[in-house]
Design a protein that fits this description.
This protein is mostly helical. Among the domains are: 55 residues, no CATH class; 249 residues, Orthogonal Bundle (Hypothetical protein af1432). The protein has 15 helices and six strands. The longest helix is centred in the middle third of the chain and has 25 residues. 42% of the residues are buried. The N terminus is likely disordered.
Length: 465
């Protein structure tokens, strides 16, 4: 059996089919056979139903430019500043210092710069650990190989820091935004998010969105005193909305930020027009998509029987996770280095949109792959919401919303000398806070505890025999 090779794709001008696989024409010799790999140490790779993985590389021109800039000590004028060591701003550069609600607290030090503090606060936040049991897409499979949000935020952080380091941006700020961007996500992914938003809107006229709720967790539910730059990046990460060009939008202070935040709660589509206040936030925003479009494909291959694995097309940026991350990253750096914005080439932007569209067709909306029952989830979310709301309004101190949630929040607030009484907040907001904080398993177990005779979710087990 012929060995399958890893192939580096520098810039093929076209594609040709070989054994059902699209191969760049430049890889073919005049006789039509595959040329040797350009890898100095080729590693055999195989993924799904494709034989070859094609990797692009940065052009020699951009690599040499980066090396010259590093040798000369160049500082990106659009890099987010640190309070202790602020490089001189270049003409047109926009780099405000870190801004906190309470500037007297959490001042930067040599050991703990401003954005390092933000990352550490997020990592030690009460809800961060719960991301380890919130699935990314495949919620109904018992499978430890499938991506949970705890892994997803780390992948986003790694992809974004790799990009940011080459572009000369502040990787500490990038890490903070990436780690915190999904901390407000509901159980059962976007299906759960939509269910909770419908219930919240029905009772209050407001909308729920995990971007907004991530900010609430870190800035409202628990007052971590994070920087405006970090919170802006979390609010506007919008990994579901692809763009060819990403430009930061200056934000003066927390008053302006709070106005945007409230608008997102009252207008369902307000988030779509937001942009991060820093270039670092823009990097996290596109890295969120880079991190999940290929990883969701990898998870699909691990979740289903081999005969059901989707047969992905070659859409110009690769078909599998490793290719997609590499090729989108290379194109972004190639077209963004030294600029005040991020840019994808028209061809790669089209490829990214096509990959996402194919994911919807072959994974997210494919009932044989994604087993999530939206109607069943709606029923379960509705029962829990109404039950918890009723127990809260009746001041049932023995109920789980008091024992497992309100007391938990009040305990953490007291630990950080926060005098606010959580019970003084609107009942529907407390119910939403509780449900959004649940892991997948906790949600299912609580539903079974409160409604033992009602239909519930059934997981696909490891052992089906």
């Amino acid at each position: 059996m012929a060995q399958k090779q890893a192939i580096v794709w520098n810039r093929g001008t076209g594609l040709e089919q070989r054994d059902g696989v699209s191969v760049p024409l430049w890889l073919l010799s005049q006789s039509g056979t595959l040329t040797p790999s350009l890898c100095s140490n080729p590693v055999p790779l195989f993924h799904g139903k494709s034989n070859f993985m094609a990797y692009r590389e940065l052009s020699r021109e951009i690599e040499q430019r980066i090396l010259r800039d590093r040798a000369s000590g160049w500082v990106n004028p659009w890099r987010a500043q640190e309070a202790l060591h602020q490089p001189p701003a270049s003409p047109g550069g926009f780099q405000p210092p870190p801004i906190r609600r309470n500037p007297a607290r959490d001042q930067a030090t040599i050991m703990r710069p401003a954005y390092v503090r933000d990352s550490e606060k997020i990592l030690h936040s009460p809800y961060f650990n719960r991301l380890s049991d919130k699935t990314q897409v495949f919620s109904l499979y018992v499978n430890d190989d499938l991506t949970r949000r705890a892994l997803h935020v780390q992948i986003v952080s790694r992809v974004a820091r790799s990009i940011g380091a080459v572009l000369g941006l502040n990787t500490d700020l990038i890490e903070a935004i990436a780690l915190g961007h999904d901390i407000g996500h509901t159980p059962f992914g976007h299906a759960g998010e939509h269910c909770l938003s419908e219930l919240f809107h029905e009772h209050t006229g407001l909308y729920f969105d995990h971007n907004v709720h991530s900010v609430r967790v870190l800035d409202g539910l628990f007052r971590h005193n994070l920087t405006l730059q970090t919170l802006s990046g979390i609010l506007s990460h919008n990994g579901e909305f692809e763009q060819q060009e990403y430009r930061p939008a200056p934000l003066e202070d927390f008053a302006a930020f709070d106005t945007l935040l409230e608008k997102c709660r009252t207008h369902e589509i307000a988030l779509q027009s937001l942009a991060p206040t820093t270039l670092e936030g823009c990097v996290v925003r596109i890295s969120d998509m880079i991190a999940y479009v290929g990883k969701d494909r990898q998870d699909a291959e691990r979740a289903v029987e081999e005969s059901s694995i989707p047969n992905y097309g070659e859409l110009g940026a690769g078909a599998h996770n490793a290719e997609i991350i590499n090729n989108l990253t290379v194109d972004l750096i190639e077209n963004s280095y030294g600029k005040d914005h991020l840019l994808l080439s028209a061809e790669t932007f089209a490829a990214m949109r096509n990959i996402k569209r194919e994911n919807y067709q072959l994974i997210y909306e494919n009932e044989q792959v994604n087993l999530t029952s939206v109607e069943l989830l709606k029923e379960m979310f509705g029962r829990l919401y109404r039950k918890l709301r009723s127990e809260l309004l009746s001041e049932d101190q023995a109920s789980y919303i008091f024992r497992h949630h309100i007391r938990f929040v009040d305990t953490w607030r007291l630990r950080y000398k926060d005098p606010r009484n959580y019970r003084d907040e609107p009942a529907d907001q407390i119910v939403v806070d509780y449900i959004a904080s649940m892991t997948d398993d906790y949600f299912v177990d609580l539903h079974a505890q409160l409604f033992p005779r009602e239909t519930s979710i059934e997981y696909v087990p490891y052992f089906k025999d």
